[in-house]
Amino acid sequence: MGFRKAMLCAALAAVVAVPAVQAKTFKWSSASDIPTFDIHSQNNALGNGVHAAVYDSLVYYNSQTFKPEPQLATAWREMSPTQVRFTLRSGVKFSDGTAFTADDVVYSITRAMAKTSNYTVYTQGIDRVVKVNDTTVDFIMKGPNPVLLNQLTELRIMSKAWAEKNKSVEPKDIRTKDETFAHRNAMGTGPYMVKEWQPDQKLVLVKNPNYWGSIPTNVTEIIYTPIKSEATRVAALLSGEVDFILDPSPQDLGRLRGNANLKVIDGVENRTIFLGMDQFRDELPGSDVKGKNPLKDVRVRKALYQAIDIDALTRVTMRGLSQPTGSIVAPQVAGWTEDVHKRFPYDQNVSKKLLADAGYPNGFEVDFACPNNRYINDEEICQAVTAMWAKVGVKAKLRTLPLVTYFPMIQRYEASIYMLGWGVPTFDALYSLQSLVRTVGTGGDGNYNVGRYSNQRMDYIVDRIKTETDLPVRNRLLTEGLQLQNDTVANIPLHNQIIPWALKKNVSVVHRADNRLDWRLITVN
Protein backbone atom coordinates (compact mmCIF):
# COMPACT_ATOMS: atom_id res chain seq x y z
CA MET A 1 0.00 0.00 0.00
CA GLY A 2 1.88 3.08 -1.20
CA PHE A 3 1.46 6.69 -0.20
CA ARG A 4 0.58 9.39 -2.70
CA LYS A 5 1.64 13.00 -2.46
CA ALA A 6 -1.95 14.08 -1.95
CA MET A 7 -4.10 13.36 1.05
CA LEU A 8 -4.57 9.67 1.74
CA CYS A 9 -8.08 9.78 3.01
CA ALA A 10 -9.95 7.06 4.77
CA ALA A 11 -13.56 6.45 5.65
CA LEU A 12 -14.32 6.81 9.32
CA ALA A 13 -16.10 3.61 10.26
CA ALA A 14 -15.22 0.58 8.20
CA VAL A 15 -17.58 -1.83 9.92
CA VAL A 16 -21.31 -1.40 9.43
CA ALA A 17 -23.29 -1.14 12.63
CA VAL A 18 -25.79 -3.96 13.07
CA PRO A 19 -27.64 -4.28 16.35
CA ALA A 20 -26.91 -7.46 18.29
CA VAL A 21 -30.06 -9.57 18.41
CA GLN A 22 -29.19 -11.67 21.43
CA ALA A 23 -26.10 -11.97 23.59
CA LYS A 24 -24.18 -15.13 22.74
CA THR A 25 -21.08 -17.03 23.85
CA PHE A 26 -18.60 -18.19 21.20
CA LYS A 27 -16.48 -21.21 22.19
CA TRP A 28 -13.49 -22.17 20.05
CA SER A 29 -10.34 -24.26 20.10
CA SER A 30 -7.06 -25.02 18.39
CA ALA A 31 -3.98 -27.09 19.22
CA SER A 32 -2.00 -24.55 21.23
CA ASP A 33 -2.37 -21.56 23.48
CA ILE A 34 -1.15 -18.06 22.73
CA PRO A 35 2.42 -17.60 24.05
CA THR A 36 1.86 -14.22 25.74
CA PHE A 37 -0.50 -11.27 26.05
CA ASP A 38 2.37 -8.81 25.64
CA ILE A 39 1.63 -7.28 22.24
CA HIS A 40 5.29 -6.60 21.41
CA SER A 41 6.92 -9.74 22.82
CA GLN A 42 6.47 -12.73 20.49
CA ASN A 43 5.44 -12.30 16.86
CA ASN A 44 3.15 -15.32 16.73
CA ALA A 45 0.19 -15.44 14.34
CA LEU A 46 -2.22 -17.12 16.78
CA GLY A 47 -1.30 -14.62 19.48
CA ASN A 48 -1.56 -11.67 17.11
CA GLY A 49 -5.07 -12.73 16.14
CA VAL A 50 -6.20 -12.98 19.77
CA HIS A 51 -4.47 -9.72 20.69
CA ALA A 52 -6.58 -7.99 18.03
CA ALA A 53 -9.70 -8.73 20.09
CA VAL A 54 -8.33 -6.70 23.00
CA TYR A 55 -5.93 -4.18 21.45
CA ASP A 56 -6.48 -1.97 18.40
CA SER A 57 -3.93 -0.79 15.86
CA LEU A 58 -3.99 2.47 13.90
CA VAL A 59 -5.22 0.59 10.83
CA TYR A 60 -6.39 -2.99 10.33
CA TYR A 61 -7.16 -5.19 7.33
CA ASN A 62 -10.70 -5.34 6.02
CA SER A 63 -11.56 -9.06 6.13
CA GLN A 64 -13.14 -9.04 2.66
CA THR A 65 -10.72 -6.82 0.69
CA PHE A 66 -7.56 -7.17 2.77
CA LYS A 67 -6.90 -3.47 2.33
CA PRO A 68 -5.87 -1.49 5.44
CA GLU A 69 -8.77 0.53 6.82
CA PRO A 70 -9.13 3.03 9.69
CA GLN A 71 -9.11 1.83 13.26
CA LEU A 72 -7.52 4.13 15.86
CA ALA A 73 -6.43 6.42 13.03
CA THR A 74 -9.14 7.99 10.87
CA ALA A 75 -6.98 9.62 8.18
CA TRP A 76 -3.36 9.94 7.08
CA ARG A 77 -1.38 11.95 4.58
CA GLU A 78 2.18 12.26 3.41
CA MET A 79 3.72 15.56 4.49
CA SER A 80 6.97 14.63 2.72
CA PRO A 81 8.46 11.33 1.47
CA THR A 82 9.74 10.71 5.01
CA GLN A 83 6.94 12.23 7.12
CA VAL A 84 3.43 10.76 7.38
CA ARG A 85 0.78 12.46 9.53
CA PHE A 86 -1.98 10.42 11.18
CA THR A 87 -5.20 11.85 12.58
CA LEU A 88 -6.36 9.83 15.60
CA ARG A 89 -9.93 8.86 16.41
CA SER A 90 -11.46 11.17 19.04
CA GLY A 91 -13.36 9.97 22.09
CA VAL A 92 -11.71 6.55 22.31
CA LYS A 93 -11.22 5.08 25.79
CA PHE A 94 -9.26 2.12 27.07
CA SER A 95 -11.27 -0.59 28.83
CA ASP A 96 -10.39 0.99 32.21
CA GLY A 97 -12.11 4.20 31.12
CA THR A 98 -8.98 6.31 30.56
CA ALA A 99 -8.65 8.33 27.37
CA PHE A 100 -6.60 7.20 24.36
CA THR A 101 -4.23 9.95 23.16
CA ALA A 102 -1.24 10.56 20.93
CA ASP A 103 1.03 9.81 23.91
CA ASP A 104 -0.09 6.17 23.78
CA VAL A 105 0.77 5.92 20.08
CA VAL A 106 4.22 7.43 20.52
CA TYR A 107 4.86 5.13 23.48
CA SER A 108 3.57 1.94 21.80
CA ILE A 109 5.51 2.33 18.55
CA THR A 110 8.65 3.15 20.55
CA ARG A 111 8.01 0.07 22.71
CA ALA A 112 7.70 -2.06 19.56
CA MET A 113 11.18 -0.84 18.57
CA ALA A 114 12.78 -1.89 21.89
CA LYS A 115 15.60 -4.44 22.07
CA THR A 116 13.35 -7.01 23.72
CA SER A 117 10.61 -6.55 21.09
CA ASN A 118 9.96 -9.27 18.51
CA TYR A 119 8.05 -6.79 16.36
CA THR A 120 10.87 -4.70 14.92
CA VAL A 121 10.20 -6.17 11.48
CA TYR A 122 6.96 -4.12 11.58
CA THR A 123 8.76 -0.93 12.64
CA GLN A 124 11.18 -1.30 9.71
CA GLY A 125 11.89 2.11 8.23
CA ILE A 126 10.42 4.07 11.15
CA ASP A 127 12.89 6.45 12.76
CA ARG A 128 10.53 7.85 15.41
CA VAL A 129 6.97 8.94 16.11
CA VAL A 130 6.30 12.53 17.17
CA LYS A 131 3.23 13.93 18.92
CA VAL A 132 1.78 16.94 17.11
CA ASN A 133 -1.20 17.30 19.48
CA ASP A 134 -3.48 14.93 21.41
CA THR A 135 -5.15 13.67 18.22
CA THR A 136 -2.29 13.88 15.72
CA VAL A 137 1.06 12.08 15.34
CA ASP A 138 3.81 12.20 12.74
CA PHE A 139 5.74 9.12 11.67
CA ILE A 140 9.26 10.20 10.76
CA MET A 141 10.75 7.66 8.37
CA LYS A 142 14.36 6.72 7.64
CA GLY A 143 13.39 6.76 3.97
CA PRO A 144 10.30 6.34 1.80
CA ASN A 145 8.31 3.26 2.82
CA PRO A 146 5.57 2.01 0.47
CA VAL A 147 4.32 -0.68 2.92
CA LEU A 148 4.04 1.40 6.10
CA LEU A 149 0.25 0.96 6.35
CA ASN A 150 0.58 -2.82 6.00
CA GLN A 151 3.18 -2.88 8.78
CA LEU A 152 0.94 -0.83 11.07
CA THR A 153 -1.81 -3.49 10.96
CA GLU A 154 0.28 -5.56 13.42
CA LEU A 155 1.45 -2.74 15.70
CA ARG A 156 -1.18 -2.54 18.43
CA ILE A 157 -1.53 0.29 20.92
CA MET A 158 -0.99 -0.06 24.68
CA SER A 159 -1.80 2.51 27.36
CA LYS A 160 1.38 4.32 28.36
CA ALA A 161 0.01 5.03 31.86
CA TRP A 162 -1.05 1.40 32.37
CA ALA A 163 2.34 0.07 31.27
CA GLU A 164 4.22 2.48 33.53
CA LYS A 165 1.94 1.74 36.50
CA ASN A 166 2.42 -2.01 36.06
CA LYS A 167 6.17 -1.95 35.37
CA SER A 168 5.74 -3.22 31.79
CA VAL A 169 7.45 -0.36 29.96
CA GLU A 170 9.66 -2.78 27.97
CA PRO A 171 8.30 -5.90 26.21
CA LYS A 172 8.89 -9.31 27.77
CA ASP A 173 12.01 -10.98 26.31
CA ILE A 174 10.76 -14.28 24.87
CA ARG A 175 14.22 -15.85 25.13
CA THR A 176 14.10 -15.72 28.92
CA LYS A 177 11.66 -16.90 31.58
CA ASP A 178 11.36 -13.43 33.09
CA GLU A 179 7.79 -12.12 33.13
CA THR A 180 6.20 -8.70 33.17
CA PHE A 181 2.65 -7.77 34.16
CA ALA A 182 1.77 -7.32 30.48
CA HIS A 183 2.68 -10.96 29.78
CA ARG A 184 -0.39 -12.34 31.62
CA ASN A 185 -2.60 -9.23 31.70
CA ALA A 186 -4.06 -6.95 29.04
CA MET A 187 -5.85 -3.62 28.76
CA GLY A 188 -6.65 -2.13 25.37
CA THR A 189 -9.21 -0.21 23.33
CA GLY A 190 -10.50 -3.26 21.42
CA PRO A 191 -14.01 -4.76 21.40
CA TYR A 192 -13.21 -7.30 24.14
CA MET A 193 -11.24 -7.46 27.37
CA VAL A 194 -9.65 -10.29 29.31
CA LYS A 195 -11.77 -11.71 32.11
CA GLU A 196 -9.60 -14.76 32.81
CA TRP A 197 -6.52 -16.45 31.34
CA GLN A 198 -5.18 -19.75 32.62
CA PRO A 199 -2.34 -20.58 30.19
CA ASP A 200 -2.80 -23.88 28.35
CA GLN A 201 -6.25 -24.27 29.92
CA LYS A 202 -8.72 -21.48 29.22
CA LEU A 203 -9.00 -17.88 28.05
CA VAL A 204 -12.21 -15.90 28.62
CA LEU A 205 -12.88 -12.58 26.90
CA VAL A 206 -15.91 -10.38 27.56
CA LYS A 207 -17.22 -7.29 25.77
CA ASN A 208 -15.45 -4.03 26.52
CA PRO A 209 -18.17 -1.63 27.78
CA ASN A 210 -16.03 1.34 26.73
CA TYR A 211 -15.49 0.16 23.13
CA TRP A 212 -15.66 3.05 20.67
CA GLY A 213 -17.20 1.19 17.70
CA SER A 214 -20.49 -0.40 16.66
CA ILE A 215 -19.92 -3.88 15.23
CA PRO A 216 -22.14 -6.62 13.76
CA THR A 217 -21.23 -9.38 16.21
CA ASN A 218 -23.76 -10.61 18.77
CA VAL A 219 -21.03 -12.37 20.76
CA THR A 220 -20.61 -11.01 24.28
CA GLU A 221 -18.29 -13.71 25.61
CA ILE A 222 -15.47 -15.63 23.91
CA ILE A 223 -14.08 -18.79 25.50
CA TYR A 224 -10.91 -20.30 24.05
CA THR A 225 -9.80 -23.78 25.11
CA PRO A 226 -6.50 -25.07 23.68
CA ILE A 227 -6.73 -28.83 23.01
CA LYS A 228 -3.52 -30.43 21.75
CA SER A 229 -5.03 -33.83 20.84
CA GLU A 230 -6.58 -33.80 17.35
CA ALA A 231 -9.10 -36.50 18.27
CA THR A 232 -10.18 -34.71 21.45
CA ARG A 233 -10.45 -31.38 19.61
CA VAL A 234 -12.72 -32.85 16.92
CA ALA A 235 -14.76 -34.70 19.57
CA ALA A 236 -15.33 -31.37 21.34
CA LEU A 237 -16.81 -29.91 18.16
CA LEU A 238 -18.96 -32.99 17.46
CA SER A 239 -20.33 -32.97 21.02
CA GLY A 240 -21.09 -29.25 20.96
CA GLU A 241 -18.54 -28.44 23.64
CA VAL A 242 -17.01 -25.92 21.22
CA ASP A 243 -18.53 -24.03 18.28
CA PHE A 244 -15.43 -23.75 16.11
CA ILE A 245 -12.00 -25.34 15.61
CA LEU A 246 -9.27 -23.47 13.79
CA ASP A 247 -7.24 -26.53 12.83
CA PRO A 248 -9.23 -29.73 12.21
CA SER A 249 -6.99 -32.68 11.32
CA PRO A 250 -6.89 -33.63 7.62
CA GLN A 251 -8.00 -37.19 8.37
CA ASP A 252 -11.22 -35.95 10.06
CA LEU A 253 -12.39 -33.57 7.33
CA GLY A 254 -14.54 -36.12 5.47
CA ARG A 255 -16.44 -36.97 8.65
CA LEU A 256 -16.88 -33.29 9.52
CA ARG A 257 -18.08 -32.33 6.04
CA GLY A 258 -20.63 -35.13 6.19
CA ASN A 259 -22.13 -34.01 9.51
CA ALA A 260 -25.47 -32.23 9.04
CA ASN A 261 -24.86 -29.94 12.01
CA LEU A 262 -21.42 -28.74 10.89
CA LYS A 263 -19.73 -26.97 8.00
CA VAL A 264 -16.13 -26.75 6.80
CA ILE A 265 -14.79 -23.69 4.99
CA ASP A 266 -11.43 -23.73 3.21
CA GLY A 267 -8.89 -21.27 1.87
CA VAL A 268 -5.19 -21.00 1.04
CA GLU A 269 -3.26 -19.34 3.84
CA ASN A 270 -0.50 -16.84 3.10
CA ARG A 271 1.84 -19.05 5.16
CA THR A 272 4.71 -21.15 3.86
CA ILE A 273 6.10 -24.09 5.83
CA PHE A 274 9.86 -24.56 5.42
CA LEU A 275 12.96 -26.04 7.03
CA GLY A 276 15.81 -23.79 8.17
CA MET A 277 19.40 -24.83 8.77
CA ASP A 278 22.26 -23.62 11.00
CA GLN A 279 24.76 -22.08 8.56
CA PHE A 280 26.72 -20.22 11.23
CA ARG A 281 28.35 -22.61 13.71
CA ASP A 282 31.68 -24.16 12.79
CA GLU A 283 30.55 -27.44 14.39
CA LEU A 284 26.99 -28.65 14.99
CA PRO A 285 26.16 -29.77 18.54
CA GLY A 286 25.32 -33.48 18.65
CA SER A 287 26.54 -34.23 15.12
CA ASP A 288 29.04 -37.00 14.39
CA VAL A 289 30.88 -34.58 12.06
CA LYS A 290 33.59 -32.87 14.08
CA GLY A 291 35.49 -29.72 13.23
CA LYS A 292 33.11 -28.51 10.53
CA ASN A 293 29.44 -27.82 9.80
CA PRO A 294 28.01 -29.80 6.85
CA LEU A 295 25.09 -27.37 6.55
CA LYS A 296 27.43 -24.57 5.46
CA ASP A 297 27.89 -26.45 2.16
CA VAL A 298 25.18 -25.61 -0.39
CA ARG A 299 25.56 -29.13 -1.85
CA VAL A 300 24.48 -30.61 1.48
CA ARG A 301 21.53 -28.23 1.78
CA LYS A 302 20.45 -29.08 -1.76
CA ALA A 303 20.87 -32.81 -1.01
CA LEU A 304 18.52 -32.51 1.95
CA TYR A 305 16.05 -30.61 -0.26
CA GLN A 306 16.10 -33.14 -3.11
CA ALA A 307 15.75 -36.10 -0.73
CA ILE A 308 12.24 -34.88 0.24
CA ASP A 309 9.41 -36.54 -1.68
CA ILE A 310 7.08 -33.55 -1.66
CA ASP A 311 4.29 -35.35 -3.53
CA ALA A 312 4.21 -38.07 -0.86
CA LEU A 313 4.06 -35.42 1.86
CA THR A 314 1.15 -33.72 0.11
CA ARG A 315 -0.75 -36.93 -0.62
CA VAL A 316 -0.12 -39.01 2.49
CA THR A 317 0.85 -36.70 5.36
CA MET A 318 -1.18 -33.63 4.42
CA ARG A 319 -4.03 -35.44 2.63
CA GLY A 320 -4.12 -32.73 0.01
CA LEU A 321 -4.18 -29.82 2.50
CA SER A 322 -0.99 -28.27 1.13
CA GLN A 323 0.26 -26.53 -1.97
CA PRO A 324 3.86 -27.67 -2.69
CA THR A 325 6.19 -24.77 -3.40
CA GLY A 326 9.79 -23.88 -4.04
CA SER A 327 9.29 -20.36 -2.68
CA ILE A 328 9.33 -19.01 0.87
CA VAL A 329 6.22 -16.90 0.14
CA ALA A 330 2.71 -17.78 -1.05
CA PRO A 331 1.18 -16.59 -4.35
CA GLN A 332 -0.77 -13.76 -2.65
CA VAL A 333 2.52 -12.04 -1.71
CA ALA A 334 4.12 -9.29 -3.82
CA GLY A 335 7.33 -10.61 -5.42
CA TRP A 336 6.07 -14.17 -5.99
CA THR A 337 6.35 -15.55 -9.54
CA GLU A 338 5.82 -18.95 -11.19
CA ASP A 339 9.60 -19.27 -11.67
CA VAL A 340 10.27 -18.62 -7.98
CA HIS A 341 7.55 -21.19 -7.16
CA LYS A 342 9.38 -24.06 -8.99
CA ARG A 343 10.95 -26.73 -6.78
CA PHE A 344 14.17 -28.64 -7.24
CA PRO A 345 13.02 -32.15 -8.24
CA TYR A 346 12.85 -35.04 -5.78
CA ASP A 347 15.72 -37.39 -6.67
CA GLN A 348 17.41 -39.66 -4.13
CA ASN A 349 20.28 -40.47 -6.50
CA VAL A 350 21.07 -36.79 -7.05
CA SER A 351 20.87 -36.28 -3.30
CA LYS A 352 23.32 -39.11 -2.61
CA LYS A 353 25.75 -37.77 -5.24
CA LEU A 354 25.61 -34.25 -3.77
CA LEU A 355 26.39 -35.66 -0.31
CA ALA A 356 29.28 -37.70 -1.68
CA ASP A 357 30.67 -34.71 -3.60
CA ALA A 358 30.51 -32.70 -0.38
CA GLY A 359 32.52 -35.38 1.46
CA TYR A 360 29.68 -37.26 3.16
CA PRO A 361 29.20 -40.48 1.12
CA ASN A 362 27.72 -42.19 4.19
CA GLY A 363 25.70 -39.19 5.33
CA PHE A 364 25.93 -37.79 8.87
CA GLU A 365 23.97 -37.30 12.09
CA VAL A 366 22.22 -34.01 12.75
CA ASP A 367 19.79 -32.45 15.26
CA PHE A 368 16.29 -31.77 13.89
CA ALA A 369 13.73 -29.79 15.92
CA CYS A 370 10.04 -29.31 15.18
CA PRO A 371 6.93 -27.97 16.91
CA ASN A 372 4.18 -30.47 17.69
CA ASN A 373 1.17 -28.17 18.05
CA ARG A 374 1.65 -25.17 15.77
CA TYR A 375 1.13 -26.10 12.09
CA ILE A 376 -1.08 -28.63 10.35
CA ASN A 377 0.47 -32.08 10.97
CA ASP A 378 3.79 -30.45 11.93
CA GLU A 379 5.13 -33.43 13.90
CA GLU A 380 3.99 -35.91 11.24
CA ILE A 381 5.72 -33.88 8.50
CA CYS A 382 8.99 -33.95 10.41
CA GLN A 383 8.70 -37.68 11.05
CA ALA A 384 8.15 -38.28 7.33
CA VAL A 385 11.09 -36.04 6.35
CA THR A 386 13.32 -37.84 8.88
CA ALA A 387 12.50 -41.15 7.18
CA MET A 388 13.19 -39.67 3.72
CA TRP A 389 16.58 -38.32 4.80
CA ALA A 390 17.49 -41.70 6.29
CA LYS A 391 17.20 -43.20 2.78
CA VAL A 392 20.14 -41.05 1.62
CA GLY A 393 22.19 -41.65 4.78
CA VAL A 394 21.33 -38.53 6.81
CA LYS A 395 20.37 -39.57 10.33
CA ALA A 396 18.23 -36.75 11.72
CA LYS A 397 17.73 -36.92 15.48
CA LEU A 398 14.19 -35.60 15.68
CA ARG A 399 12.88 -33.82 18.78
CA THR A 400 9.47 -32.16 18.97
CA LEU A 401 8.31 -29.48 21.40
CA PRO A 402 5.14 -27.46 22.13
CA LEU A 403 5.23 -23.98 20.65
CA VAL A 404 5.60 -22.18 24.00
CA THR A 405 9.05 -23.75 24.45
CA TYR A 406 9.89 -24.36 20.77
CA PHE A 407 10.01 -20.76 19.56
CA PRO A 408 12.12 -19.34 22.40
CA MET A 409 14.49 -22.32 21.86
CA ILE A 410 15.05 -21.65 18.16
CA GLN A 411 15.40 -17.93 18.86
CA ARG A 412 18.33 -18.85 21.12
CA TYR A 413 19.86 -20.60 18.07
CA GLU A 414 19.66 -24.02 19.73
CA ALA A 415 18.53 -26.08 16.70
CA SER A 416 20.63 -27.37 13.80
CA ILE A 417 17.66 -27.96 11.48
CA TYR A 418 14.24 -26.56 12.39
CA MET A 419 10.73 -26.17 11.01
CA LEU A 420 9.14 -22.75 10.65
CA GLY A 421 5.87 -21.57 9.12
CA TRP A 422 6.01 -17.98 7.92
CA GLY A 423 2.89 -15.97 7.21
CA VAL A 424 3.17 -12.56 5.59
CA PRO A 425 0.89 -10.01 7.32
CA THR A 426 2.08 -7.24 4.98
CA PHE A 427 1.44 -9.33 1.82
CA ASP A 428 4.84 -8.10 0.65
CA ALA A 429 7.96 -10.30 0.34
CA LEU A 430 10.17 -7.74 2.10
CA TYR A 431 8.66 -9.00 5.36
CA SER A 432 9.93 -12.53 4.64
CA LEU A 433 13.27 -11.61 3.09
CA GLN A 434 14.17 -9.18 5.88
CA SER A 435 13.11 -11.58 8.65
CA LEU A 436 14.37 -14.88 7.25
CA VAL A 437 17.42 -14.28 5.02
CA ARG A 438 18.81 -10.83 5.82
CA THR A 439 21.96 -11.09 7.95
CA VAL A 440 21.03 -10.84 11.63
CA GLY A 441 21.19 -7.22 12.73
CA THR A 442 18.95 -4.55 14.22
CA GLY A 443 15.56 -3.11 13.31
CA GLY A 444 14.02 -6.45 12.35
CA ASP A 445 16.91 -7.60 10.15
CA GLY A 446 17.14 -11.39 10.44
CA ASN A 447 14.82 -11.50 13.45
CA TYR A 448 13.78 -15.07 12.50
CA ASN A 449 16.92 -15.94 10.53
CA VAL A 450 17.72 -18.45 13.26
CA GLY A 451 19.98 -20.44 10.92
CA ARG A 452 22.04 -17.23 10.62
CA TYR A 453 22.36 -17.42 6.84
CA SER A 454 24.38 -14.50 5.48
CA ASN A 455 24.83 -13.34 1.89
CA GLN A 456 26.13 -9.91 0.87
CA ARG A 457 24.02 -9.74 -2.29
CA MET A 458 20.91 -10.65 -0.32
CA ASP A 459 21.64 -7.91 2.22
CA TYR A 460 22.04 -5.39 -0.59
CA ILE A 461 18.73 -6.43 -2.19
CA VAL A 462 16.81 -6.29 1.09
CA ASP A 463 18.23 -2.91 2.10
CA ARG A 464 17.47 -1.50 -1.35
CA ILE A 465 13.85 -2.75 -1.22
CA LYS A 466 13.27 -1.00 2.11
CA THR A 467 13.22 2.46 0.52
CA GLU A 468 12.57 1.72 -3.20
CA THR A 469 9.37 3.51 -4.31
CA ASP A 470 9.46 2.71 -8.04
CA LEU A 471 7.04 -0.25 -7.93
CA PRO A 472 8.27 -2.13 -11.07
CA VAL A 473 11.86 -1.84 -9.82
CA ARG A 474 10.81 -2.83 -6.31
CA ASN A 475 8.93 -5.90 -7.54
CA ARG A 476 11.94 -7.01 -9.60
CA LEU A 477 14.11 -6.72 -6.49
CA LEU A 478 11.61 -8.71 -4.42
CA THR A 479 11.65 -11.50 -7.01
CA GLU A 480 15.45 -11.40 -7.26
CA GLY A 481 15.71 -11.82 -3.50
CA LEU A 482 13.28 -14.75 -3.51
CA GLN A 483 15.20 -16.41 -6.35
CA LEU A 484 18.53 -15.90 -4.57
CA GLN A 485 17.07 -17.63 -1.47
CA ASN A 486 16.21 -20.57 -3.76
CA ASP A 487 19.53 -20.68 -5.63
CA THR A 488 21.57 -20.67 -2.41
CA VAL A 489 19.11 -23.00 -0.60
CA ALA A 490 19.04 -20.60 2.32
CA ASN A 491 15.99 -22.56 3.51
CA ILE A 492 14.08 -25.60 2.20
CA PRO A 493 10.50 -24.62 1.27
CA LEU A 494 7.88 -27.35 1.65
CA HIS A 495 4.36 -26.05 1.06
CA ASN A 496 1.77 -23.34 1.55
CA GLN A 497 -0.89 -24.38 4.04
CA ILE A 498 -4.48 -24.86 2.93
CA ILE A 499 -6.57 -23.99 5.95
CA PRO A 500 -9.90 -25.63 6.70
CA TRP A 501 -12.02 -24.23 9.51
CA ALA A 502 -14.72 -26.47 11.03
CA LEU A 503 -17.71 -24.97 12.82
CA LYS A 504 -21.34 -25.39 13.74
CA LYS A 505 -23.83 -24.42 11.05
CA ASN A 506 -25.38 -21.77 13.29
CA VAL A 507 -22.07 -19.88 13.52
CA SER A 508 -21.03 -17.31 10.90
CA VAL A 509 -17.39 -16.23 10.42
CA VAL A 510 -15.31 -14.74 7.61
CA HIS A 511 -12.40 -16.95 6.46
CA ARG A 512 -9.17 -14.95 6.18
CA ALA A 513 -5.90 -15.75 4.38
CA ASP A 514 -3.97 -14.95 7.57
CA ASN A 515 -5.85 -17.74 9.41
CA ARG A 516 -7.32 -15.50 12.09
CA LEU A 517 -10.85 -14.72 13.16
CA ASP A 518 -12.28 -11.24 12.78
CA TRP A 519 -13.94 -10.89 16.17
CA ARG A 520 -16.12 -8.02 14.93
CA LEU A 521 -17.89 -10.21 12.37
CA ILE A 522 -18.70 -13.43 14.27
CA THR A 523 -22.37 -14.21 14.81
CA VAL A 524 -23.96 -17.12 16.66
CA ASN A 525 -27.58 -17.82 15.71
Describe the structure.
The protein is α+β, with helices and mostly antiparallel strands and 525 residues long. It contains 16 helices and 20 strands. The chain has helices at residues 45-54, 102-112, 148-152, 160-165, 181-184, 230-239, 253-257, 298-306, 310-317, 338-341, 348-357, 378-390, 403-411, 430-436, 456-467, 471-487, and strands at residues 7-8, 24-29, 59-61, 68-70, 73-80, 83-88, 126-133, 136-141, 192-198, 202-207, 219-224, 244-245, 262-277, 322-324, 365-371, 395-401, 417-423, 491-504, 507-508, 523-524. The strands form four sheets. Strands 2, 9, 10, 11, 12, 13, 14, 15, 16, 17 and 18 form an eleven-stranded mixed beta sheet that branches. Strands 1-5-6-8-7 form a five-stranded antiparallel beta sheet, with helices on one face. The protein has a two-stranded antiparallel sheet with strand order 3-4. A hairpin with a 2-residue loop joins β7 and β8 (136-141). α8 runs antiparallel to α11 and α15 runs antiparallel to α16. Residues 1-20 have low confidence and may be disordered.
